[in-house]
Amino acid sequence: MAVDAAEIYDGIRTLPIVSPHGHCDPAWFADDRKFANPAELLVIPDHYVFRMLYSQGVDLAQLGIGAPGEGADPREVFRLFAHHWDLFLGTPSRIWIEHVLHRTLGIEERLSAQTSDTIYDLIDALLMQPDHRPRALFDRFGIEVLATTDGALDPLTHHAAIAQSDWGGRVIPTFRPDSVLDPLHDGFMDNLAGLETQTGCDLGQFEGYLEALRQRRAFFAAHGATATDHAVEQIRTEWLPEPETLYQRVRAGTADAQEASAFYGHMLIEMAQMSVEDGLTMQIHAGSRRNTNMALKRQFGPDTGADMPIAVDWVRGLGPLLNRVGNTPGLRIILFTLDESTYARELAPMAGHWPALRIGPPWWFHDSPAGIARYFDRVVETAGYHNLAGFNDDTRAFLSIPARHDLWRRAVAEHLAQQCTRGAFGRDDAERLARLLAVDLARDVYGLAR
Amino acid sequence: MAVDAAEIYDGIRTLPIVSPHGHCDPAWFADDRKFANPAELLVIPDHYVFRMLYSQGVDLAQLGIGAPGEGADPREVFRLFAHHWDLFLGTPSRIWIEHVLHRTLGIEERLSAQTSDTIYDLIDALLMQPDHRPRALFDRFGIEVLATTDGALDPLTHHAAIAQSDWGGRVIPTFRPDSVLDPLHDGFMDNLAGLETQTGCDLGQFEGYLEALRQRRAFFAAHGATATDHAVEQIRTEWLPEPETLYQRVRAGTADAQEASAFYGHMLIEMAQMSVEDGLTMQIHAGSRRNTNMALKRQFGPDTGADMPIAVDWVRGLGPLLNRVGNTPGLRIILFTLDESTYARELAPMAGHWPALRIGPPWWFHDSPAGIARYFDRVVETAGYHNLAGFNDDTRAFLSIPARHDLWRRAVAEHLAQQCTRGAFGRDDAERLARLLAVDLARDVYGLAR
Amino acid sequence: MAVDAAEIYDGIRTLPIVSPHGHCDPAWFADDRKFANPAELLVIPDHYVFRMLYSQGVDLAQLGIGAPGEGADPREVFRLFAHHWDLFLGTPSRIWIEHVLHRTLGIEERLSAQTSDTIYDLIDALLMQPDHRPRALFDRFGIEVLATTDGALDPLTHHAAIAQSDWGGRVIPTFRPDSVLDPLHDGFMDNLAGLETQTGCDLGQFEGYLEALRQRRAFFAAHGATATDHAVEQIRTEWLPEPETLYQRVRAGTADAQEASAFYGHMLIEMAQMSVEDGLTMQIHAGSRRNTNMALKRQFGPDTGADMPIAVDWVRGLGPLLNRVGNTPGLRIILFTLDESTYARELAPMAGHWPALRIGPPWWFHDSPAGIARYFDRVVETAGYHNLAGFNDDTRAFLSIPARHDLWRRAVAEHLAQQCTRGAFGRDDAERLARLLAVDLARDVYGLAR
């Protein structure tokens, strides 16, 4: 039966936005100050944008990135971006930014080198308006809940301020503890000291360390968190029957790289076990090798677009963790991959078996029309729809949130319409699944219904 | 030239079913007893079905699986399945089971929690009828030949009984010797003892061991077998110039894991060399890590849906074997992968060169509409059609055999119609290739024409 | 907006052919002798063709391959090929050869066992004509530039002869130095001796070795080369702070395999650094395991269709090289992969960041309609179009060059029309991108505009 994708899309187009994972700054909503200017809104924070410009020879300093970019004229930054607008043909960045300009901001002019200043001025004028402040936009976007991602030691003052304000927006933190779990993390020893100070626990013994982590999780949960998040390069988990010894070596700074990795692998399992206790959904983002461009890291700091995906072995890497907790009813662990070859080979078979597992939506380089199509093509036949986790926008570009959910919803509609055409199921099923994929799975898997 | 997939499908829809690889129980056809009940027919033996239910929190014991499931009420099992029917949206299981219910069994009612009992009763009543006994169904399905998969020590009494009966159905065994080849196999030492007893060969020397294997192969061939089968996790082959020494260590139980793997790698080559001698087609299924859920294995035994695919290196893994026998005219080795990234990268280039190699059809998680489309997309341009091996249903769910061949034939027609539309070839070619893929390749590659 | 692929194709169909990488023999154009016969033109040099025939049991000697094939009757070779024409259904070889027969040679008859002799005679008669000599065909094909691939020690006499002739065709060499860089290369020590003789440099010290390589690069550039090329099995690069020691071990023949690989990994970086100096574009073809069929290599020599792709790790393998030169403006390094799983996972993210990187077109087994579609599907969303390198025909089958560019242009048009239909961009953009992909990117990335 032929079903029109546009009709399925219409059924989910205006549903609320559920954003259970992303990187917005909670200060925006705590302070509700105006966004500074079009460049700081659309160009400078968007690593999709500046990595493409850099790949074609544009200097990051001229784009206002990092310390070398301080003092760059935002209008010039925006011009440089507009001048290279052609580079984005065929990329999701182009779709998102066109959505932002034309639909979110209502600008009719099309972006080009010629229109750069005009559009800059139009956006700048809009940002002066009260109805373009963070909270007003949040409300206008129909955001039901927005999760930020926050280090384990974050005092969550912005989240507290939002909660205590008279504004009704739901902005919740996510507990990201890698900086106090992974001995190879920058500043790990200082972070342990901070953890000790913050919690008052005695970190001299492994039990005290676990207790401190439990306290931080409880603190995050009390501020609304429903999930944790881990970013690992290679997925490796390992249950140490006697972790105290290795913990002491780690604390003494005498653990070698192999031991550090074993310790972190053990701690991932401890975190999963704490999730069994406290009900926080566990997210694992694996397969990104961070900051591969050393010169850029030295000059501009981390996160300058040089993180690169590598191949991942989920089956063997996650085995020890799953054999500790994977059969636990109610536990939710969401797996995100940048290695698409693992979708059909590993993640769909694993999520189609282990009760605890769900497959996260296409992440990072793959949250694009073709990327989403490949995702459905590869996971659904083995994992079905109910072992998926809905959508994440995963963005630090606040204005692009409606654009990203819209792209997802269109791709969902496209996929489901094709399924109907192939005879997999009928229109009623497709409409139900569309709502599931647009909002309900995310609400459920992240425990966001309240 | 636009060609209609439906027309190509019509040309192959009613061709006989050639099933050269699967896991039906030969006792069904030897004894021709009625199938016990709808749950034991459709739910309990189908790991696709129960793994999906388990992934969403359904207890395997309640599904009648393994020892803990003994005594489960089949009607309750069926209800549990029907209640979760939505989970199968988008999966091939749903297509197969709908085909079984509506076309094979002629039930009009659609499955749901509400219709569970009605449908259960309808199926149960049908199973009472003589025309729904195994042999009658086999005949009605138009099965030309059905191969089972049988351990090396199997006495093949059921196959013998079928051959001596007055029923004309062709049910042949397949020689699966891993349990007497792989020192890491459960019960390997006992199996060697059994092999010695069964053949009367002296297994004290490697030559006697080889001779015993030759005898078992001949015994299987005498019972109609045309093929062997191996299931390996990582493909590794290695020619030992002096296998006696390692054989003695293996027999003495003193070989370590590395030596055990080397021994098995050598034995795969010995098996290929025996295939050169006796003409049995060799099947290699690689890349499945078995029983990854240890708690389930302890409670429910093996094969509870926790086998997981892993990445495979065919080129280096199979090199030593191919350099012994790969250029042999007439030898047939069929490779099956769960790592789809190897189709275009390794298997199609290899099968497009080595005379002995054929690429098996999409296996296990990938014998689905999108899986089959990806398979053709990735193998045909390099390997053509004549280096493929046709279709396997590979099922232990007897009733689903027509459904699985039908799904394959529809997917074949879809693929060939697209090729015509793209201008790759014309309708005459497409119709010829359709018959090749539906039946002729399987007959040829498995040596089934008689 | 629906845009017709045929219209986009029409806009690029007759553009000149830019062929920046391939394996034609420059002697053809230096001498301008007639091609010997249809078999030597279409069958014997085409490893796509003879590997497929071999995979189905055809003897390579009967196909006129290698020393054992000397003296094979070309008419018989052509018959054998025509007899097996069905094997090529669904392969790009069939598309290319049909294009050659029907469009390039103007033969109306369709190839089959029955028409073999007729077609053979028609081709043979055409080859007698002056307008079917190499230079005339080169001109008729509209080839703007054709790059050959030449060993580091090649005296380039044919290229010099072409340049000094009154014929205006541009046939340029490409510097392929692996035979003097990789200690594991056949004849490496002899090649070093040849390099010393040819350049007069003192290879007793590492500096002299580098100087000799610089001289050879300059010699190639003086003969028109704009690029270098490397073929590596596993990509591995490594900067040795003190290469002299290892160089001395390599020269003394005492380096082990691991050291040889480290040395070659260092030399790849030296080559990249020389590209920074002299502006030659660097090509890296990685992931092909050469001559995996040892019996064929012994009997027929190398390159008999037994090279097999293996998995590649670009991110870690290329890291040391990129951290030396990857941020250099103006440097061009083109990466070619046979491991398609790296397109979305590694190559598109890398090319979308590093200024020096471009992604080469689908290579070898993947320069086919479905292969090209997968390529665009996987690279464009992350790398855009401007980080691609246009098209290579990469062929030693001269007559197939127009066919291969035509197949690419049709696939480009197909892809761009789909992008328009999906709403990614409009027809004007599509037409601009079509020209970019057909000719302009290749001209630019290989520095061919003059």
TrEMBL record, chains A, B, C:
Pathway it works in: Carbohydrate metabolism; pentose and glucuronate interconversion
Superkingdom classification of source: Bacteria
UniProt keyword Isomerase, yes or no: yes
GO biological process, one term: D-galacturonate catabolic process
Isomerase found in the keyword field: yes
Annotated GO MF terms: glucuronate isomerase activity
UniProt keyword annotations, A-Z: Isomerase
SUPFAM superfamilies, per the entry: Metallo-dependent hydrolases (SSF51556)
Reactions the enzyme catalyzes: D-glucuronate = D-fructuronate
InterPro entries: Metal_Hydrolase (IPR032466), Uronate_isomerase (IPR003766)
Gene3D superfamilies membership: Metal-dependent hydrolases (3.20.20.140), uronate isomerase, domain 2, chain A (1.10.2020.10)
Pfam families reported in the protein's UniProt record: UxaC (PF02614)
Family, similarity comment: Belongs to the metallo-dependent hydrolases superfamily. Uronate isomerase family.
PANTHER family: URONATE ISOMERASE
Protein name listed in UniProt: Uronate isomerase
Lineage start: Bacteria, Pseudomonadati, Pseudomonadota, Alphaproteobacteria, Rhodobacterales
Gene name in the database record: uxaC
